[in-house]
Each structure stands twice: as structure tokens, then as C-alpha cells.
Specification:
The complex is a heterodimer of chains A (264) and B (256).
Chain A (H helix, E strand, L loop, with lengths): L22 H19 L11 H14 L1 H33 L1 H14 L8 H8 L4 H24 L3 H9 L4 H38 L5 H10 L3 H29 L4
Helix pairs in contact in A: 2-10, 3-4, 3-6, 3-8, 3-9, 5-6, 6-8, 7-8, 8-9, 8-10, 9-10
Chain B lengths: L1 E12 L4 E12 L4 E5 L6 H8 L7 E7 L8 E4 L11 H5 L1 H5 L4 H14 L15 H14 L4 E5 L7 H18 L3 E4 L3 H7 L2 E6 L4 E7 L13 H25 L1
Parallel strand pairs in B: 3-7, 3-8, 5-6, 6-7
Antiparallel strand pairs in B: 1-2, 1-4, 8-9
Classes of the chains: A mainly alpha (264), B alpha/beta (256).
Bound molecules: adenosine-5'-triphosphate and magnesium ion.
Adenosine-5'-triphosphate binds next to strand 2 and helix 1 of chain B.
GO molecular function (chain B): ATP binding; ATP hydrolysis activity
Keywords (chain B): ATP-binding, Nucleotide-binding, Translocase, Transport
Pfam family, one (chain B): ABC_tran
Amino acid sequence: MMTEPRQTITNRVAFLEQRIPKYASVLGITGLLLLWEIICRLNIVPPLFLPAPSAILTDAWEMIATGELFKNLFASLYRVGIGYALGAVLGIVIGLILGFSRWTDAIVTPIVYSIYPIPKIALLPLIILWLGIGEMPKVTIIALGVFFPVVINTFSGVKNVDPILIKAAVTFGSSHANVIRKVILPGSLPMIFAGLKLAAGTSLLLLVSAEMIAAQQGIGAMVLHYGNLMITTKLMVGVLLLSLLGLLFNRGLQWLENKLLPWK
Amino acid sequence: MRIVVENVAKTFIDSKREVTALQNINFAIEEQEFVVLVGPSGCGKSTLLNIVGGLMSPTDGLVYFEGTNQKQPNLAIVFQEIALFPWRNVFENVVYGLEEQGASKQEIQEKGQHYIDMVGLNGFEKAYPKQLSGGMKQRAGIARALSVEPDLLLMDEPFSALDAQTRTLMQEELLTIWNRTKLSTLYVTHNIQEAVYLADRVIVLSRHPGTIKEIIRIDMPKTGRDSEQNREQFEKYSNQIWDLIRHDAQEALLEG
Ligand SMILES: Nc1ncnc2c1ncn2[C@@H]1O[C@H](COP(=O)(O)OP(=O)(O)OP(=O)(O)O)[C@@H](O)[C@H]1O
Ligand SMILES: [Mg+2]
């Protein structure tokens, strides 16, 4: 008996669900570092313009040994930590109030939106004039930069909570305070987190700018210092440290979000 | 305890026009009675349910509980939109009302489990709403409403988003549950068969303005209404209601 010719049908959208192994993301970074190292070893670019990763690592080790690295890192972490926390807490609280009270919304929201577009670093000279040259102006400028994206996201998060859920809560006996705590806050949390992540990038930007303008210590000051001295290896230590910091910051927020929003 | 709706009227005033959604609404829901509101689209069923549920104020008239004996009566609503809290799992959703009533931990645990079992969701206590099918969500919504053991249960087209098979099964289940709990219920639907299947009395609303056209008592045993020997009577009630609604429904369709 003859077998009929067959044409098997295969899944033509298999690429949509293709699983990529974990090592792939490590592969990219390692590849880039390797390429960078090779370019430097072959002397294609002079070391002053682009120091080799190995040289940067050696200098970083030295800076750790002398304590210089951690001194600057902690100075920066202190500023960004306090500034970020301050801005985030104020942003969330005020955003919740704006979203909840129509009066404050009508009065305060136009103010928020008119200050929001100002690049906050432009306010630094003024703030230094007001607060002196200590830690305060740097912390304040970071807090300001964090406050605005957080307040605006929190506000729209509150506004986007489905009114039917508020009706449901009230029907089942919730007081006003419980409506805020059990419905409005969890309902706006995804938007709040979007704001917090946006603010994370802003806070690092402002940190470094402020430290470059007015600081003895901190990663920004360190980068500028070695830039002036044309010691690019040590400059690059600061730059890579910032990249690491930003990465960790984002991962931390992502972890917290997964922890707090398992229902997403 | 009975619920009385007295002379209720509702007019919506827009910038341009006034819409009289309800006028002259008078009826009562007796203790342990299942009352169904039917009417064509836009006749004011949801408006009336919202007023009875305390989520909207009437322009005129009032709604009150009678014979409460100083007890604060409580309400529960099963929403058409279901309205489960997405950040709470099934168990936490079901016990929301109990929590707000200040029930003890043990009571919350027991009653929560009891009503989850009743609607057949055991095993899904830890699931979040987005992990449930439409029918399961609606059952969780029903369990949430039942768990507070309300003096009046309000349901606004709870099954309208479900497919026909699920809908039939859910109607059967609702009837079984209701026969066990016997809660005073006001149920909104535009499905005539559903109304005849579930109701002790059917209130037929007409539109423009929404008024009560007729109140029909369904004189059939509460179980087995869909069986063969009851078919003739079932049809008779359905036709009677359809004849009352037909003209209005056609008008509603023409107006779009
Ligand atoms: N918030 C509102 N503002 C203005 N008019 C409204 C409002 N809510 C309802 N209406 C009007 O009141 C009438 C009754 O509306 P309602 O939602 O109660 O109808 P319904 O019987 O529930 O209809 P359906 O079966 O389509 O859900 C309609 O004409 C509608 O346009
Ligand atoms: Mg409706």
C-alpha cells in the first residue's frame, strides 16, 4: 500500500514562547568586558581615554584598601538615602491627600504641575543660599526630585482606583479610614511603585550633579576630582560604581514590589 | 424584618436635559422573600437597586427597614461588575465584610470557610481574582455577600457576563444556596426566564419614566420550576411578563 504524502503542521509562533537560559544575560556583560579589555590590550585606544577593565579593577582594589572608596560611597548613600526616603514619603502622603480631597486637589495640583517641569538642579544655588553649604541642600534637592514623580504617580493612582471597589467596601461596612487603608492605598500601589522607580533614576542624577557642584566627598565629587587630575582609571571606578548603584537600587525596588504586590 | 420602598423617584439633571429615571416606586420586600426586578434596558433597574443599597440618594421618597428591633440592619450587594478586590485572595475577599463588622478571628475563619465551601470554591482560598474564571469570580462575590448574613441581599444582573451554560448552573446553585439561607433578596435581571425561575414576586418596570407596571406573584414551588410538568405554567408566566415588556423593549431598541 502507498503512504499518502504528509505535511506536518508545526507551531509557527514558537519564537513567542522561546525560553532563554539564565546565563544569556551574564553572557552579554562578560562579552562586552572582554571586548573592552582586548581593545585596550591591543592599544587601539590610549589608556588615558579608555582604561582597561583590569586596570580599573586594580585601582578599585587600591581605593578600597585606602578606605577612599567607602568614604565616598557612604557619603553618597547617606545623601541619597535620606533624600529619597524624605521625597518618597512626602510624595506618597501628599499624593494620597490630593487624590482624596477635592479642595486640596483644586488648590495644590496646579502648583505641583508648575514646579514639576523645573529641572531641580537649577534650584541648587538658591537652596544653598537658603540652607548653607552642608548636607541639607543636597538632601533637599534629591528629596525635591523624588517628590514630584512620586506625588504625581500617587495622585493618578488614587484617581484610577475603580469607584465600584470603593462602593463595595462602603457597602460591606468600611469606614472612611478603612476605605483609604484597605482600598485606595493598595489600589494605587502599582502606580506608586512606577513613580518610585522613575524617581530612583532621578535621585542618582541629582546626587551626582549636586556633588559635582558642591561637595568635598561623595561619588560625584570623586569622579570630578579624578577628571580634573586626568586619572581616568579612578574616574571610571566612580562611574562603574554608579552603574552598580543604579542597578541595585532598581533591583531592590523590583524585589519590594514583587513582595508587596503578589496579586499583579 | 421587611424593607419598604416608598414613593421613590429619581431625576438625573444634566447640563442640557432632565431624565426622570424613576417615578412613584412603591413596594416592600417581605422577610425571606426573593423579589426580582425586570424591565427593558434603561428603565432604571440599576438606579433603583443603588438607591435601595444606599449608594445613591433618591430625588424623592425613602427606603427603610421595618421591624428592626433596634438592630442595625446590614446590606450586601453582589455587583454586576463583581468588584472583588484584586489584591485580596479569595478567602480575604470573602471575609471582607466580616472583618469590617469586627468579627473575631475564629468567627472569620469558620464563616469564611463555610461560605467558600457553600459556593464550591474550596481549594481556591489562596487564589487571586485574576487567577479565577468568570463564574468562579462571581461565586466569590456571592460568598462575600452571603458571609455577612445580610438582612437584605441585593444582586444586580450577577450572571449577565457569563456564558449560557455557566449561567444556568449558577442559577441552580443560587437557588440551592437561597433555599438554605432564605435571605430577603432584591435581584435585578433583564432575563425573563431567570426571573420566573428564581422569584417569589416579579416587579415589572416600564420605561420613560421608570414606573412599576405590574407586580406578579409566581405561584410555583421554589424547586423544580424548570421540570417538565411545570413547563406550561413557566411558559405562561414568561409570556405574561414578555407581553408587558415587549412594547417598551422595542421602543428602547429603536432609540438605541
Ligand atoms: N448618572 C447618571 N446621570 C444621568 N442619567 C443617568 C445616570 N444613571 C442612569 N441614568 C439614566 O437613567 C435611566 C435608567 O438607568 P439605569 O442604569 O438604572 O437603567 P437599567 O434599567 O439598569 O438599564 P440596563 O438594563 O441597561 O442596565 C437611563 O435612561 C439612564 O440614561
Ligand atoms: Mg443596569
